[in-house]
Specification:
disordered N terminus, elongated, binds zinc ion, 678 residues, alpha+beta, 10% strand, DNA primase DNAg catalytic core, N-terminal domain, DNA Primase, Chain A, Dna Topoisomerase Vi A Subunit, Chain: A, domain 2
C-alpha cells in the first residue's frame, strides 16, 4: 500500500471475503484442530498450555481462548498469529479465496459510505430472512395439515427424520401467500423477500406471491452453513419438477454445490467428492452413509466448482445417469476437468445404467454395491480415450490422424507433469505417430477456443446438452476451455454398454478363467480386436510364430486385460506340444488341443476370422500386438500408481510412487526406442 495515498478496503468486500472464508480452514491449516461437539479445539497458539482451551465456533465464525482471552474472526486470527497488518491479513485471505482486493480512496463521500453500509445491511438482512424462511418450511413439514403428502414422499424414499433434519428439509404448502403472510408483513420485509427470490411481484398486477408452493424444500447452504437459497421438488405433477431460487446478491448457482456444507460437517477432511445431479441424490446417499456427495444446482459442472472441489480433495467422481443427457453431462465435465488434471489429482466417471440415478440405485442395490461402482469408476485418462476413439477404427490411418488432431490440443491443455507425459505417450501408442508429429498436428489445428464466438457457440451447445430438462434455471456458460469435438459425436445410445471395445478394454479380474458369456464383439470390424485377441488369432493360424515367445513375457502374465490370460495359456500349450513333438505344432494340432478350453468358442471364431490387412509379415504383426500389450501393461501400472498417489496420505509412500512413475515413464521410452529401431 502506498504511504502517500492511504487507501481503505471497502466493507462490502470484507463482508464477502468473510462469507467465502471458513475460519475453521484458516485456523486448521496453521493449528491442528480437533472436533468437539459443534466446535473445534486446540492448544492455544497465543499462550503456553498443555490442555486445550482454545476453541473455534464454525457457526459464529469466531475463535476464542478461555485461557488468555484471545478472540476474533478469521482476519483477526491471521493478524494475531502471523503478525500481519489488517490489509495484509485481508490480502492473504483474498488470495486463498481467489478474490482481488479492490482499493479505495480513503476520503469517501458520506453518500458512498452510506451506500456501502446499506449494502452490507441488506446482505445480513437477507441471511436472516432466509434462515427464518428455512425454519418456517421445516415447521410446516412437522405441523402443517397438508404435510402428509410431503412426509410420505420422503418416507417412500427411505429417508429418516434424522437425515431430513440434518439437511433441514422442509415443506412449502399450497397457497399463494403462506410465506408472505408469515414473514412479509411490512413493506420492507416484503421487498426483502422479493430481493432474495422468496417472493415474486407480477409486473402488471403488482400482485406479490410466494416463489415456492406445494414443494419439498431443500435449503441450499454456503460453506459455512448459512442458508443462501432453496431448491424445491414438486409434490404433484406441476412443472418444473425441480425449482431453484433465482440468483441473488448472495446466491450464485454456478459457484455453489448442494450438500458440501453437510458433507464437511460429517467429515472435515474429505478424501473425495462425488458430484451428482440432484438434491435427492445427495440426501439419499447420505441416508445410506455415503456422505461425500454434492450436487450442482441445475447447471453443468463449472470451473468454479472444480476450483473449490480441488482445494478440498484430490479426487472427484462424476456420477450421472446413463441416458444421453447424462453421457453428455459427463463429457462436458471431462472437458471442464482438463485444466485441473495436475499430478496427484484425479477425476473419474461413473455412468449409471439407463433409467437409474444415484437415489434409485442406492435404494435398489444398497450402499455397498454403489460404493463398489464408485471405486471402479473410469479414470480420466481412460474416459478421455474412450470418448475420442469412439467410432474410430484404429487401423485406419486417417482415423488415427483424426484421433491425434482431436486429442492433442486437449492433452496439451492439461497442466505439465507426469500424467500429461503419460497421456501423450499413450496417444503415440494408439496412433503410431511420434511426439514431433503430434506437436505439428497441434500447431496446425489450433483448438477452437481461440475466438470468443467459437467459445460461446460450443459452450452453448454443451450447456443445452447438460441441463437436466427438469430444471428451469438458465445455466451460465463459463468453461475456460472449449472442447474440440463435433457437436454430434456422442450419438450411439448404447455406446456406454459397448465400452469393452478396444482400445480401452477394461480388465477382467481373473485372468485364466474365462467367462462363458464373453464373446467377441461381432458389432466390430474384425480388424478392431484387442491386441490379445489379435495375437491369439495369429498364433492359432500360424503356430510357428509362438517359437519366438518360448519365454512368455512377464508383462503378459500380469496384464489385467480380457483374453490376456487366454493368450498366455495358448503360448503354454504351444510350448507343451513343441516339447512333445520336438517341432512346432501345425494349426490343426494346436486348435484340436485347445477345444477343451473354456475360451474355445471365442478362439474358434477368431481363428476363422479373415484378416483385413494384407497377409504378409505375421512375425511383425504378432510382435506389434505383443508390444501393444506391453504398453497396456505400462498403463495398468500407471493407473495402479496413480491410485496409490490418490489414496495415500503418507509423504514417503507418495514420494515412492512418484519415483516409480518416473522410472515407469523411462522404461516406456526405452521400449519405444527399441520398437523404432526394429
Ligand atoms: Zn490462549
Amino acid at each position: 500500500m502506498s504511504a502517500q495515498q492511504p487507501q481503505r478496503i471497502p466493507q462490502d468486500f470484507i463482508d464477502t471475503l468473510l462469507d467465502r472464508t471458513d475460519i475453521v480452514d484458516v485456523v486448521d491449516s496453521r493449528v491442528k484442530l480437533k472436533r468437539s461437539g459443534r466446535n473445534y479445539t486446540a492448544c492455544c497458539p497465543f499462550h503456553k498450555e498443555k490442555t486445550p482451551s482454545f476453541s473455534v465456533a464454525p457457526d459464529k465464525q469466531f475463535y476464542y481462548c478461555f485461557g488468555c482471552g484471545a478472540g476474533g474472526n478469521a482476519i483477526g486470527f491471521l493478524m494475531e498469529l502471523e503478525h500481519l497488518s489488517f490489509p495484509e491479513a485481508v490480502e492473504e485471505l483474498a488470495r486463498k479465496a481467489g478474490m482481488d482486493v479492490p482499493k479505495q480512496e480513503q476520503n469517501l463521500s458520506p453518500a458512498a459510505i452510506a451506500a456501502q453500509q446499506a449494502k452490507a445491511q441488506a446482505r445480513n438482512q437477507a441471511y436472516d430472512l432466509l434462515e427464518q424462511a428455512n425454519l418456517y418450511y421445516q415447521k410446516q413439514l412437522r405441523q402443517h395439515p397438508q404435510r402428509k403428502q410431503a412426509v410420505s414422499y420422503l418416507q417412500e424414499r427411505g429417508l429418516s427424520g434424522q437425515i431430513a433434519q440434518r439437511f433441514g428439509i422442509g415443506f412449502a404448502p399450497s397457497g399463494w401467500q403462506n410465506l408472505l403472510d408469515e414473514l412479509g408483513t411490512s413493506d420492507t420485509t416484503q421487498s426483502a423477500l422479493i430481493n432474495s427470490g422468496m417472493a415474486i411481484k407480477k409486473p402488471d398486477s403488482q400482485r406479490v406471491y410466494d416463489f415456492f408452493r406445494e414443494r419439498i424444500i431443500f435449503p441450499i447452504r454456503n460453506s459455512k452453513g448459512k442458508v443462501i437459497a432453496f431448491g424445491g421438488r414438486v409434490l404433484g405433477d406441476a412443472k418444473p419438477k425441480y425449482l431453484n431460487s433465482p440468483e441473488s446478491a448472495i446466491f450464485h448457482k454456478e459457484k455453489e454445490l448442494y450438500g458440501l456444507y453437510e458433507a464437511r460437517q460429517q467429515q472435515r477432511d474429505l478424501k473425495r467428492l462425488l458430484v451428482v445431479e440432484g438434491y435427492m441424490d445427495v440426501v439419499a446417499l447420505a441416508q445410506h452413509n455415503i456422505h461425500y456427495a454434492v450436487a450442482t444446482l441445475g447447471t453443468a459442472t463449472s470451473h468454479h466448482h472444480l476450483e473449490r472441489i480441488y482445494k478440498m480433495v484430490s479426487e472427484v467422481i462424476f456420477c450421472f445417469d446413463g441416458d444421453a443427457a447424462g453421457i453428455k453431462a459427463a463429457v462436458r465435465a471431462m472437458h471442464t476437468s482438463v485444466p485441473f488434471m495436475s499430478d496427484g489429482r484425479q477425476a473419474r466417471f461413473l455412468l449409471l445404467p439407463q433409467g437409474e440415478d444415484p437415489d434409485t440405485m442406492v435404494r435398489k442395490e444398497g450402499a455397498e454395491a454403489l460404493t463398489n461402482l464408485i471405486a471402479n469408476a473410469t479414470p480420466f485418462s481412460e474416459f478421455l480415450f474412450q470418448q475420442f476413439s469412439q467410432d474410430l477404427d484404429i487401423h485406419n490411418l486417417e482415423h488415427r490422424a483424426k484421433l491425434a488432431t482431436d486429442m492433442m490440443p486437449v492433452i496439451q491443455s492439461m497442466p505439465k507433469g507426469l500424467m500429461r507425459s503419460m497421456m501423450i505417450s499413450k496417444l503415440e501408442d494408439y496412433t503410431g505417430l511420434n511426439q514431433d508429429t503430434l506437436a505439428q498436428l497441434t500447431a496446425v489445428n489450433d483448438p477452437p477456443a481461440i475466438t470468443a464466438k467459437a467459445d460461446t457457440a460450443l459452450s452453448d451447445h454443451h450447456e443445452q446438452a447438460t441441463i437436466n430438462t427438469d430444471f428451469v434455471d438458465t445455466p451460465t456458460g463459463d468453461a475456460p476451455y472449449a472442447p474440440p469435438i463435433p457437436p454430434d459425436y456422442v450419438q450411439a445410445d448404447n455406446y456406454w454398454q459397448a465400452k469393452e471395445s478396444w482400445p480401452t478394454q477394461p480388465t477382467t479380474h481373473h485372468q485364466q478363467g474365462y467367462q462363458k458369456n464373453h464373446h467377441i464383439q461381432q458389432r466390430q470390424k474384425a480388424s478392431v480386436q484387442n491386441p490379445a485377441q489379435g495375437a491369439i488369432r495369429l498364433i492359432l493360424r500360424h503356430p510357428t510364430l509362438a517359437q519366438n515367445y518360448a519365454q512368455i513375457p512377464d508383462h503378459l502374465r500380469q496384464l489385467r486385460m480380457a483374453d490376456a490370460g487366454v493368450l498366455v495359456r495358448l503360448l503354454e500349450i504351444c510350448q507343451q506340444i513343441q516339447t512333445q513333438l520336438q517341432r512346432a505344432p501345425k494349426a490343426a494340432e494346436l486348435q484340436s488341443e485347445c477345444t477343451t478350453l473354456e475360451a474355445w468358442p471365442m478362439m474358434r471364431e477368431l481363428a476363422a476370422m479373415e484378416s483385413l490387412t494384407v497377409a504378409s509379415d505375421h512375425t511383425s504383426q504378432l510382435q506389434e500386438a505383443i508390444d501393444k500389450l506391453h504398453h497396456h501393461y505400462f498403463d495398468q501400472r500407471f493407473d495402479d500408481l496413480s491410485q496409490i498417489l490418490r489414496n495415500s496420505s503418507g509423504e514417503e509412500q507418495i514420494n515412492t510412487a512418484k519415483k516409480q512413475l518416473k522410472s515407469l515413464l523411462s522404461e516406456k521410452e526405452t521400449l519405444q526406442k527399441m520398437q523404432k529401431s526394429r
